[in-house]
């Protein structure tokens, strides 16, 4: 017999966890001498109060959509991919190479190729940790973290060296050609008669992100591969019994995961910066962990959580602008969400289960 | 016994008063959620006796003993130890009350020595050196007293299960236990080792210890106990003197009705050879040779039973044939060799070739416990083109089919949307069996078909196996239950230490002869 | 390369190995008891900040050390709460703790000091200075041995000697005491410990808190001895490298010393030779920076011996049903 209704598990627990994280964040804000209510007001106004705010919120959300899906897919195979950050960095390299070194007649073709390039490079960066986990039992959590550091060093070298245009000062690539400019939400919505902020970076990648959500949903719950991924995640001995190769599933899942993380680059590199800069990912790979946990590894949940974190990110930036609260507040919130939805899940779950049991007993 | 009292508080073993029960339980009840595991159990165990507790799987024996050992807290009831009311909130208290427990799954630290395991928890001081020296001396005297010889410096993972069990008994004795509880102690032992164990237990009893033996094997009860209590569905249904009862009577008390220990079947009519195994060898990850040249064959329309004490290679044989483990040697299916290594030595290829497999451990292997019944109904066959289109699965069709299948196999409740973990053991097994025999395999591998399964489902499962045989399929039956092997098989092979010791026709086999072979003694009839 | 250069590199090896060693031993206690801890990084970071901040405010490095240890212990307590009491996922808890430390340190630093997430530079009273061992000056002129004693062995801060003394101490606790026996047992088979009447929970909390104590010293060393103050993310992956060293050492104390010295040596080389000229090819600084991480992956890949972790590691203990 189930201890509590499914809706409580899917909706109530994440919400309570979020509330706990919010309360503690509020206390942190109080502790550093700021007003949490005022902070929340500022965040809401800054992130949701204008199409400009929404444009940033959705832009960040797009990043987190991809990295959140990346972590979620790996979770289904009970793999913990903390390497989204490095994979997204490499994805950026893939995008930059496609945009800089191939001539494109139209942005749509460029987007297709850049998505492919980003996924390819991201997946490639996940490949070695995956194969080491599958074949040598090397702990994928630590290897993917190491690959984040290695990716940072590698991109650093590329951007101050081979990829930097002659004479430029910044450690970055050259600007991408005009032909690969992705339409922003402003440009997409204007023909429909909807006015949207011109300055906000949200762009067509958001739609690609939604498409990715749908595809991931179909992969996990409608395909034979998804069936195998989930089965492997639940029980490795059972997977072997069913003829599912643990090596194959580990590698394929991590390639998909790395590919999704890499695809984030079409948003931040191609859609926003239009060149590859140092530390372009800004920690979005890590936020994917919080997003996947909060979204219960379900693509729709990931979508909602990504929007939430987009809001937090944009709101946090506004806070840093108008108050003495630094942007690192968002890292604290992210940590708290991971803590409550991931590690302290039982702390929320056990009293709730007891409550539902008691309610049922009273009804019976 | 020398007086290394672990807890200080308790007196050294005094001569027990033969009139006062060593243990008396009064109205013990325990529920897990909606399941009532123990219902108002009362029982008296007299000192200096061996008291058996017998019952089916799930009858509540282990729960009762866990309450006695402080693992669970009873919802109601009272425990008296030597006439004194005693509260046992944790294992520490049980040990202090003089209770020692030998669990079915040993609680030993595998990479510790025997001595280290024995002193764990009763070191008696902050530094190890004096504690170890003291234990070494005590161990020596215990060994002499009770025939409990173990090398104190051996590492647990290097010694056999029989020895490990002795370490568990020594642990209890070192803690000055007067009452020793043993949970299914012979499950992993050869008949010879079991005999040795019984000798030790009789010694202990004669020295005044009280012993509770939990088992589901009638033979053991009859052989060694003085008194026996029977449990059924969480209740204590009877307590009788062993000399005043019979196996048939006990079986009836256990099950609550007359039991058909035999399976109705007609003589087999074997056809062409389906499986031919020749010189199969397996070396495990630790470098131990698990199969040392196994050869056997099974023909269409017959059941080959593979008897043996657990851990002698039968699991590996099933896993090799089921494609879960690589091996060397040759295996022919319908005259065609099947790959034993490489990417095609996997479960998918085996299923395509016509080998179905009901694994020994259905909860860890045969099912995904968090998958629904309908998802489990295609587990292993999920690549079958018939259940989907291209990379996609046709979930609605699978669900509908699962529903019908569950009705045919009388799975209760017949709801395919429930997760596998919410079914009872017997119903889980039916889900696995239905899936594996539905596609009409040429060969069915089936391991421990009725482990953890209630009596009603056992009969159903046995009937299905025989029906499959009568449909002309070949069946390899692996079971540690000799009765089951003898009831279902047409031929019986015995495996010992990775080798086939011999093979006999089922109608000519005697339990005694099979028991000898299971202990590694070859008999005249060996093939 | 002359003796002095070699000694300088080795001296720097010792200094850089110290935080790794402390963190590695911290991880050893925790993981030997069956609690995986990838939150070493965060605990060190929190300790680094609080030790530097309190030392800067009070002017006393000892009070700073205490504050650092306290900060690390609270995060340990959190890890224990999540992974022991509430039987949560130990990896996720560790990750959360790392982010928590990364965010909170900067947040509080900004709020207290307004110096862009740093603490003010520590003056001499707020730092652990080098200790000149007896006779170092006198023996300095003795050929070979003199400089070794003077440069390499003498002149480190007290925490370096503490760290090295922790190695035999850890060994002794682990293999010679009742606590060590129980600690190793609970990481291998908690059921054996439980049925022997010992509290699994209490043992594991003890291990996790020892881990916090050692991480606290490691963090304090970073900010108040190795460097003079806290800067954002100053642990720079040392917690993860310590974990790799722990695996390399197969969870044993002496081997932990050797493994962390190896990593310390690599970092010393990278620090001294920014662009390593190999004659035919110049290794860029970024490659040198990445080297410890690459080596970590190589070690984890098990090409240098296969490690068997404590058997019950990472699994919350649930009494069987």
The pLDDT mean of chain C sits at 89
Helix content of chain C: 55-70%
| Oligomeric category | heterotrimer
Q: Based on Cα principal axes, name the global outline of chain C.
A: globular
Task: Tally the beta strands of chain A.
Answer: 0
Number of helices of chain C: 13
Order of helices and strands of chain C: HHHHHHHHHHHHEEH
Radius of gyration of chain A (CA) equals 21 Å
List keywords for this structure.
heterotrimer, B: 527 residues, alpha/beta, Rossmann fold, six-stranded mixed sheet, 17 helices, 22 strands, globular, disordered N terminus, C: 321 residues, mainly alpha, ABC transporter involved in vitamin B12 uptake, BtuC
Question: What does this entry look like structurally?
Answer:
The complex is a heterotrimer of chains A (364), B (527) and C (321). Chain A has 364 residues and is mainly alpha-helical. Chain A contains 16 helices and no strands. The mean pLDDT of chain A is 92. Chain B has 527 residues and is α/β, with parallel strands linked by helices. Chain B has 2 domains: 23-255, P-loop containing nucleotide triphosphate hydrolases (Rossmann fold); 273-374 and 439-518, 3-Layer(aba) Sandwich (Rossmann fold), CATH 3.40.50.300. Chain B has 17 helices and 22 strands. Chain B has a 6-stranded mixed sheet with strand order 6-7-8-3-9-10, with helices on both faces. Chain B has a 6-stranded mixed sheet with strand order 16-19-20-13-21-22, with helices on both faces. The longest helix of chain B is centred in the N-terminal third of the chain and has 19 residues, at 128-146. Chain B is globular. With 321 residues, chain C is mostly helical. Helices cover 69% and strands 1% of the residues of chain C. Chain C has a two-stranded antiparallel sheet. In chain C, a hairpin with a 4-residue loop joins strand 1 (276-277) and strand 2 (282-283). Chain C is globular, with a radius of gyration of 20 Å. The termini of chain C are far apart. In chain C, 54% of the residues are buried. At the A-C interface, helix 5, helix 6, helix 13, helix 15 and helix 16 of A face helix 3, helix 4, helix 11 and helix 13 of C.
Write the layout of secondary structure elements.
The complex is a heterotrimer of chains A (364), B (527) and C (321).
Chain A: H1 6-31, H2 36-48, H3 51-76, H4 84-101, H5 107-136, H6 140-160, H7 185-189, H8 205-222, H9 224-234, H10 236-241, H11 246-263, H12 265-273, H13 284-294, H14 299-322, H15 329-343, H16 345-363
Helix pairs in contact in A: 1-15, 1-16, 2-3, 2-14, 3-8, 3-11, 3-13, 3-14, 4-5, 4-6, 4-11, 4-12, 4-13, 5-6, 5-11, 8-9, 8-14, 9-11, 13-14, 13-15, 15-16
Chain B: E1 23-32, E2 35-45, E3 50-55, H1 61-68, E4 76-81, E5 84-85, H2 91-96, E6 99-102, H3 114-119, H4 128-146, H5 161-174, E7 179-183, H6 191-206, E8 210-215, H7 218-224, E9 227-232, E10 235-241, H8 247-255, E11 273-283, E12 289-299, E13 303-307, H9 314-321, E14 328-333, E15 336-337, H10 347-353, E16 355-358, H11 362-366, H12 373-376, E17 388-389, E18 392-393, H13 395-408, H14 425-438, E19 443-447, H15 455-470, E20 474-478, H16 482-488, E21 491-496, E22 499-505, H17 511-518
Parallel strand pairs in B: 3-8, 3-9, 6-7, 7-8, 13-20, 13-21, 16-19, 19-20
Antiparallel strand pairs in B: 1-2, 1-4, 4-5, 9-10, 11-12, 11-14, 14-15, 17-18, 21-22
Chain C: H1 3-32, H2 40-58, H3 61-85, H4 90-113, H5 136-139, H6 145-153, H7 158-176, H8 178-188, H9 190-195, H10 200-226, H11 238-248, H12 253-272, E1 276-277, E2 282-283, H13 285-300
Antiparallel strand pairs in C: 1-2
Helix pairs in contact in C: 1-6, 1-7, 1-10, 1-11, 1-12, 2-3, 2-4, 2-10, 2-11, 3-4, 3-10, 7-8, 7-12, 8-10, 11-12, 11-13, 12-13
């Amino acid at each position: 017999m189930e201890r509590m209704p499914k809706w409580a598990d899917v909706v109530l627990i994440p919400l309570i966890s979020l509330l706990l994280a919010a309360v503690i964040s509020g206390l942190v804000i109080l502790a550093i001498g700021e007003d949490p209510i005022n902070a929340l007001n500022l965040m809401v106004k800054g992130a949701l109060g204008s199409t400009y705010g929404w444009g940033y919120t959705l832009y960040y959300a797009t990043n987190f959509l991809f990295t959140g899906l990346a972590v979620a897919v790996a979770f289904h195979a009970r793999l913990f991919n903390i390497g989204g950050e490095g994979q997204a960095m490499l994805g950026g390299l893939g995008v930059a190479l496609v945009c800089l070194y191939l001539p494109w007649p139209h942005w749509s073709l460029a987007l297709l190729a850049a998505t492919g390039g980003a996924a390819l490079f991201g997946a490639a960066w996940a490949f070695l940790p995956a194969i080491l986990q599958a074949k040598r039992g090397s702990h994928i959590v630590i290897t993917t973290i190491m690959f984040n550091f290695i990716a940072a060093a590698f991109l650093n070298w590329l951007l101050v060296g081979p990829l930097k245009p002659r004479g430029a000062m910044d450690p970055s690539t050259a600007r991408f050609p005009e032909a690969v400019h992705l339409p922003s939400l402003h440009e997409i919505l204007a023909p429909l008669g909807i006015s949207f902020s011109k300055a906000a970076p949200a762009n067509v990648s958001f739609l690609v992100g939604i498409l990715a959500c749908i595809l991931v949903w179909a992969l996990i719950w409608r395909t034979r591969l998804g069936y195998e991924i989930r089965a492997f995640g639940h029980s490795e001995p059972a997977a072997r019994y069913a003829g599912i190769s643990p090596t194959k599933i580990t590698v394929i899942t991590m390639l998909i995961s790395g590919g999704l993380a890499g695809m984030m680059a079409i948003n931040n590199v191609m859609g926003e910066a239009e060149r590859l800069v140092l530390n372009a990912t800004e920690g979005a790979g890590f936020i994917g962990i919080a997003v996947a946990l909060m979204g219960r590894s379900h693509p729709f949940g990931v979508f909602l959580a990504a929007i939430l974190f987009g809001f937090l990110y944009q709101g946090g930036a506004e806070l840093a602008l108008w108050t003495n609260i630094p942007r690192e507040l968002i890292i604290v919130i992210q940590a708290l969400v991971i803590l409550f939805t991931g590690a302290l899940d039982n702390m929320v779950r056990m009293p709730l289960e007891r409550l539902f049991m008691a309610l049922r007993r009273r009804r019976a | 016994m020398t007086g290394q009292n672990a807890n200080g508080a308790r007196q050294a073993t005094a001569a027990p008063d033969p009139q006062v029960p060593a243990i008396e339980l009064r109205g013990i009840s325990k529920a897990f959620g909606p399941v009532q595991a123990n219902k108002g159990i009362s029982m008296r165990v007299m000192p200096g006796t061996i008291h058996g507790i017998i019952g089916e799987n799930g009858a509540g024996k282990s729960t009762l003993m866990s309450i006695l050992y402080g693992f669970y807290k009873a919802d109601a009831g009272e425990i008296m130890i030597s006439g004194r009311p005693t509260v046992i909130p944790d294992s520490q208290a049980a040990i202090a009350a003089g209770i020692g427990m030998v669990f079915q799954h040993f609680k030993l630290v595998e990479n510790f020595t025997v001595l280290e395991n024995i002193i764990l928890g009763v070191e008696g001081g902050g530094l190890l050196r004096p504690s170890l020296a003291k234990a070494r001396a005590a161990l020596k005297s215990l060994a002499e007293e009770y025939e409990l010889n173990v090398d104190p410096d051996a590492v647990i993972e290097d010694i056999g299960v029989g020895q490990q069990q002795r370490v568990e008994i020594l642990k209890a004795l070192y803690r000055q236990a007067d009452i020793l509880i043993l949970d299914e102690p012979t499950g992993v032992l050869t008949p010879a080792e079991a005999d040795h164990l019984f000798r030790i237990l009789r010694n202990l009893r004669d020295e005044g210890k009280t012993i509770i033996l939990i088992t589901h094997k009638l033979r053991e009860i009859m052989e060694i106990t003085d008194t026996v209590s029977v449990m059924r569905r969480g209740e204590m249904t009877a307590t009788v003197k062993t000399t005043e009862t019979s196996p048939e009577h006990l079986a009836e008390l256990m099950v609550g009705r007359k039991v058909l220990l035999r399976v109705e079947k007609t003589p087999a009519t074997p056809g062409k050879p389906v499986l031919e195994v020749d010189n199969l060898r397996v070396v495990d990850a630790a470098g131990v040779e698990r199969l040392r040249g196994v050869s056997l064959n099974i023909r269409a329309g017959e059941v080959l039973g593979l008897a043996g004490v657990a851990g002698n290679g039968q699991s590996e044989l099933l896993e090799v044939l089921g494609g879960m483990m690589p091996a060397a040697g040759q295996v022919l299916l319908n005259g065609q060799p099947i790959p034993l290594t490489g990417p095609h030595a996997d479960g998918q290829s085996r299923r395509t070739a016509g080998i179905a497999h009901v694994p020994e451990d259905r909860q860890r292997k045969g099912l995904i416990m968090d998958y629904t019944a309908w998802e489990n109904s295609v587990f292993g066959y999920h690549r079958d083109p018939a259940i989907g289109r291209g990379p996609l699965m046709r979930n609605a069709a699978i669900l509908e089919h699962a529903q019908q299948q569950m009705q045919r196999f009388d799975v209760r409740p017949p709801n395919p949307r429930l997760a596998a973990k919410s079914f009872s053991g017997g119903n889980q097994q039916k889900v696995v069996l239905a899936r594996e025999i539905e596609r009409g395999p040429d060969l069915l591998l089936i391991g421990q078909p009725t482990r953890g399964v209630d009596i009603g489902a056992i009969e159903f499962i046995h009937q299905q196996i025989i029906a499959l045989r009568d449909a002309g399929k070949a069946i390899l039956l692996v079971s540690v239950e000799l009765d089951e092997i003898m009831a279902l098989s047409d031929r019986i092979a015995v495996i010992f230490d990775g080798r086939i010791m011999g093979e006999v026709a089922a109608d000519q086999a005697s339990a005694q002869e099979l028991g000898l072979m299971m202990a590694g003694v070859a008999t005249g009839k060996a093939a | 390369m002359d003796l002095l250069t070699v000694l300088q590199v080795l001296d720097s090896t010792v200094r850089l190995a110290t935080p790794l060693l402390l963190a590695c031993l911290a991880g050893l206690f925790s993981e030997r008891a069956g609690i995986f801890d990838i939150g070493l990084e965060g605990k060190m970071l929190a300790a680094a900040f609080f030790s530097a901040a309190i030392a800067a405010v009070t002017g006393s490095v000892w009070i700073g050390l205490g504050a650092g240890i306290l900060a690390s212990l609270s995060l340990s307590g959190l890890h224990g709460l999540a992974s022991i009491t509430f039987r949560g996922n130990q990896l996720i808890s560790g990750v959360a703790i790392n982010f928590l430390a990364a965010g909170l340190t900067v947040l509080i630093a900004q709020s207290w000091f307004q110096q862009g997430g740093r603490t003010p530079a520590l003056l001499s009273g707020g730092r652990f200075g080098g200790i000149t061992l007896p006779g170092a000056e006198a023996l300095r002129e003795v050929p070979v041995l003199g400089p070794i004693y003077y440069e390499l062995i003498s002149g480190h801060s007290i925490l370096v000697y503490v760290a090295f003394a922790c190695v035999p101490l850890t060994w002794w606790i682990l293999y010679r005491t009742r606590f060590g026996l129980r600690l190793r047992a609970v990481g291998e088979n908690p059921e054996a410990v439980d049925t022997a009447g010992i509290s699994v929970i209490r043992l594991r909390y003890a291990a996790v808190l020892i881990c916090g104590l050692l991480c606290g010293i490691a963090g304090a060393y970073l900010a108040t001895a190795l460097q003079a103050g806290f800067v954002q993310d100053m642990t720079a992956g040392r917690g993860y490298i310590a974990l790799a060293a722990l695996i390399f050492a197969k969870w044993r104390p002496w081997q932990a010393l050797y493994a962390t010295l190896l990593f310390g040596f690599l970092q010393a080389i990278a620090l001294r030779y920014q662009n390593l000229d190999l004659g035919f090819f110049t290794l860029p600084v970024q490659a040198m920076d990445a080297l410890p991480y690459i080596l970590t992956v190589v070690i984890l890949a098990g090409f240098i011996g296969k490690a068997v972790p404590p058997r019950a590691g990472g699994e919350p203990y649930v009494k069987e049903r």
